[in-house]
TrEMBL record:
Superkingdom classification of source: Bacteria
PANTHER family linked: GLYCOSYLTRANSFERASE WBBK-RELATED
Species of origin: Chryseobacterium edaphi
InterPro entries: Glyco_trans_1
Protein name, entry field: Glycosyltransferase family 4 protein
Annotated Glycosyl transferase family domain residues: 193-347
Record keywords, A-Z: Transferase
Length: 364
């Protein structure tokens, strides 16, 4: 059994989508130990220690190919390399397929529907690729994975394509309640001496970070909060100049850490007074679940996908859902969590299973 996949999300510092793809691959190898996996990209592929010896890397980043947008390379050049490896099944980690032989079974992972719901938050090339190819490729898939019920419902609404399995993104068991000693050691490492509000996510328009920044600074300037910092974790993203300028202007109150390792991030969540994530749209919302499992209350958007991520909190005051455009609602909830003691409770980390996917692959 030879399984190929596009490896664009597999970076040295993987995003949420990268972590999701890694989990799917690990689950396939656990359940189908004789499977041979082939990773294709026109960029450097980053693999965990667990996967590095089990996956054949096919990296094509010479001067010409490296400069091509990933999905353009996938559509026009990747097919000839995949054909040489005699692949039986191809997994699209982003919803797009290369040119494949008719006999190859096609599996697509759908993480979100940004092009339909929030197209203005996408780069022009990214949006154009979706416009040209996404519908055709999704409809040609033999098996569809959606990362949430919300994504699955929207996929059917826009494309009349049913998901074959809904697989929520898993969260590492490292996200859990932590001792004060563990948290304090981490805070010393990053020289964090104040209480803090935490934001985690790439610095891009869809995350609604400008909204967070402006309202946080308003609270500071109105002296409604004192000795509280806003800590931002996340890599630079598309169209982030306004965000960077705002952070630089208010560096006394805002600390942007950039990328934080998977070792430190759970402790950073656990030490926060509140986690804020008023995103305009998400396919699921892994950070919401990470924060809750770490025992930190959450302010996030009142949308189906983020409520699905937050449903592990049950009927508690650990999470507040707001209109991501309502500044007063956001600020009132920030003050609620800063000014009141919230009892941290241990929340069970859901086990993520994918039996339908495994059974489908085993058929070939």
């Amino acid at each position: 059994m030879r399984i190929g996949f596009d490896a664009f999300p597999l970076q040295v510092r993987p995003s949420g989508i990268g972590k999701y793809v890694i989990n799917v691959l690990e689950e396939i190898l656990k359940n189908i130990p004789d499977a041979e996996l082939y990773a294709y990209s026109n960029q450097k592929i980053g693999l965990s220690e667990k996967l590095v010896l089990k996956i054949h890397r096919r990296e094509f980043y010479d001067h010409f190919q490296h400069k091509m947008p990933g999905k353009v390379w996938l559509k026009f050049l990747a097919g000839k390399y995949i054909k040489k490896d005699n692949i039986d099944v191809f997994i699209s980690t982003t919803g797009f397929f290369p040119s494949l032989e008719d006999r190859v079974r096609k599996i697509a992972i759908v993480h979100d529907l940004n092009a339909k719901l929030v197209p203005k938050t996408m780069g022009k090339m990214h949006y154009l690729t979706h416009l040209l190819y996404f519908r055709k490729d999704i409809l040609s898939a033999d098996f569809i994975i959606s990362n949430s019920i919300g994504t699955s419902d929207k996929l059917f609404y826009y494309f009349k394509k049913e998901s074959d399995e809904i697989i929520n993104p898993p969260v590492s068991d490292n996200y859990k309640l932590r001792s004060s000693a563990e948290i304090n050691q981490l805070l010393q490492k990053y020289d964090i001496k104040n209480d803090y509000i935490l934001f985690v996510g790439n610095l891009e328009p869809r995350k609604n970070l400008v909204f967070v920044l402006k309202n946080f600074i308003e609270l500071v300037e109105q002296k409604k909060i004192n000795n509280v910092k806003l800590i931002i974790v996340g890599m630079k993203g598309w169209k982030d100049s306004e965000i960077q300028n705002f952070i630089n202007k208010h560096s006394d109150s805002i600390n942007a850490l950039g990328y934080v390792s998977e070792t430190d991030l759970p402790l950073l969540y656990a030490g926060a007074k509140v986690f804020v994530f008023p995103s305009i749209y998400e396919g699921f919302g892994i950070p919401v679940r990470e924060a809750l499992l770490s025992g930190t209350p959450v302010i996030t958007s009142d949308i189906v996908e983020l409520k699905e991520a937050g449903d592990i909190a049950g009927d508690t005051d650990m999470v507040s859902y707001i209109n991501p455009y309502n500044a007063e609602d956001f600020k009132n909830n920030v003050l609620k969590y800063l000014n009141n003691i919230i009892l941290k409770k241990e929340i069970k980390n859901p086990q993520i299973m994918m039996p339908k996917l495994i059974n489908f692959i085993k058929r070939f």
